[in-house]
Amino acid sequence: MTEFTNSRLLVTGAGGQLGRLAVEELLARGAQNIVAGSRDISGLADLASRGVEVRHLDFDDSASLASGFAGVDRALIISTLSANRAAHQAAAVTAARAAGISYLAYTSAPNARPNADAAGIADHYWTEQAIAASGLDFTLLRNHIYAETVVGAGPILASGQLFDATGGNGRNYVTRADAARTAAGALLSATGKEIVDVTGPSPVTQEELAALYSSLTGKPVTRIGLSAEQLLEALQSAGVPPFMATLLVAFDQDAADGHHAIVTDTVERYSGRAPQALRDFLLANRAALAA
Q: For a designed S-S bond to 26, which of 31, 59, 116, 253 qualifies (C-beta 3.0 to 4.6 A apart)?
């Protein structure tokens, strides 16, 4: 595939976990002209010292969008986590097109759709639509649920109970590192227009996850299946913010419908390595399981 190592490459959200990893991967793969955009650039001084251009880029600030995308050839838009992210991200796409960018990669979600019950997943759909309507080349990276979400399972281990509304179906966890390597690889090489699922090597059910917790920690954990309504009520009772609670339930509903059990070669194709299995990831992060 064509390599864009010498093109000016922008990563938005570079101060976040995924964005930072993507910039690091671009550096490791020899990219010569990287721009790191973030609404808070205070933590990016080390990247600047390594030759990365740091720009203030806030999706709420149209002026910063214009200056942030200026002179860029190809951009990776890292999806935000806000209640109005569809509007934020549509503004970013508009700014990218106005700046003359030729290609956009975007971190989306599995089964992006406009349904009202899709909660924050619908935001991904509308962002995908904005990108498709822009006329630019693109790669829509439908990242499956991050493996990092199942680390820090202290409350689960303490209670011995893992609640979910997945209907017993699996989800194909992918690590942030694998997702970032994939995004960087797309930014460096992808052409045309494509939608791809970014997955781990095989689906894992919540029953299997409970067994992993038990075997790795020595603490028995039982998976308890709930309806979507019961899970939403439990999350809200636990103080989870409404936007996040609805999003988590929508993710479980999609898993129940089989949308998270997809297996693809996207990670290997764009990163050059096989994705890490969930068990191996948990083994590597065993010390953090009970956090």
A: 31
